[in-house]
Design brief:
45% helix, TIM Barrel, 15% strand, globular, single chain, 10 strands
């Protein structure tokens, strides 16, 4: 999973970042990983190269053959559902049926300069439009207002390769979102960050229960009758624990610091109180050491194997390994090779 890119990258380095993404994705495919996730992020220092996951996935489709190409996440209230289906249908055709994405409701006020009237009711819009996405993907037409204000029936093109759209719903700590994903029979894309073990167990259990008892759509397609829990985790598998922690510490702290500043720039009423530099440093240090003890795949192969086994036992189906928090390409690739060997051992 790509999620942040280098928080200190200069604009002149963006072309190199795309080259890194291509190189890492090709390596992930060769090593047998199941999917690559690319996010949607706007106007911030973190995530500068990720304004459109469909566009980037289309490029990755042309240099890969097997690996699934997933948007993690598509901020649905920023876009017309017809355009989302059209864009991802192109990806599905270019990749011969490897497209899928997770729906996010959006959170940062600055993102919504793209759709300012959709901010206050962004959650309701996203959840309302998920069934519509599925209908449009399956070939049904929808009625929408045209340039004259009249309602017209339109059907998006091109026709996708996959009959059913692989969908996830992005969830943070809200139990209601996990249950909603179950009722909608989507997968759920969450993160180990900000959740302890008991909370995660409860959320997964409530998701499974809602998924099993949902009346529609039928429990078929990419998530079967069980659903899919995908958890994002910061990842670097080192030669040993000490090397992994030493290698990850500075770039991860820099990423966390930049991410906190992004959160503080949000003008929503629920945004955190601004912190001074000393407080940011204290919080990033605390977060880093917490990641080392729970929720990350930062450590030796043995340490990461134990954490993967634990996540599996807690009910996780997939781990989306967040690799681009400031490590160079060589280290990311070396860590992926060690992780691939570990994955084979666990299987």
């Amino acid at each position: 999973m790509f999620f942040g890119a280098d928080p200190v990258a200069q604009e002149t380095e963006h072309a190199t970042k795309y080259e890194d993404i291509v190189a890492v994705t090709r390596a992930a495919e060769e090593l047998g990983f199941a999917a690559v996730w690319t996010p949607e992020r706007h106007f911030q220092q973190v995530g500068q190269v990720f304004p459109n996951p469909a566009l980037l996935s289309a490029a990755l489709a042309m240099v890969t053959e097997r690996i699934a190409l997933r948007g993690g996440s598509v901020v649905l209230p920023l876009h017309h559902p017809l355009r989302v289906v059209e864009d991802w249908s192109v990806v599905d055709n270019l990749s011969h049926g490897r497209a899928g994405f997770s729906v996010a409701t959006g959170w940062h006020s600055a993102d919504f300069v793209l759709a300012p009237d959709h901010y206050d009711d962004r959650r309701e819009r996203a959840l309302r439009d998920i069934p519509l996405l599925r209908r449009l993907w399956s070939g049904e037409s929808g009625e929408f207002a045209d340039g004259t204000g009249r309602m017209v029936a339109v059907r998006p093109q091109p026709v996708p390769v996959q009959a059913e759209l692989p969908l996830w719903l992005s969830a943070s700590g809200s139990l209601a979102t996990w249950e909603t994903a179950g009722r909608l029979r989507t997968g759920v894309l969450g993160a180990t960050v900000g959740q302890n073990r008991p909370d995660l167990v409860e959320r997964i259990a409530r998701y499974r229960a809602a998924y099993r008892t949902a009346e529609s759509p039928p429990a078929v397609g990419p998530h079967g009758d069980h659903g899919t829990v995908t958890l994002m985790a910061h990842t670097y598998v080192g030669t040993d624990d000490a090397e992994a922690r030493h290698t990850a510490e500075a770039p991860l702290k820099a990423y966390l610091s930049s991410h906190m500043r992004q959160m503080q720039s949000n003008r929503d009423e629920g945004a955190p109180t601004p912190l001074d530099e000393r407080q940011v440093d204290q919080l990033t240090d605390f977060a880093f050491h917490r990641y080392l003890s729970w929720g990350s795949l930062i450590g030796s192969a043995d340490t990461c194997a134990a954490r993967l086994s634990e996540l599996r036992d807690l009910g996780c189906d997939e781990v989306a390994c967040f690799v681009d928090f400031g490590l160079g390409q060589d280290r990311v690739l070396a860590g992926l090779h060690r992780l691939a060997a570990l994955r084979k051992d666990l299987a």
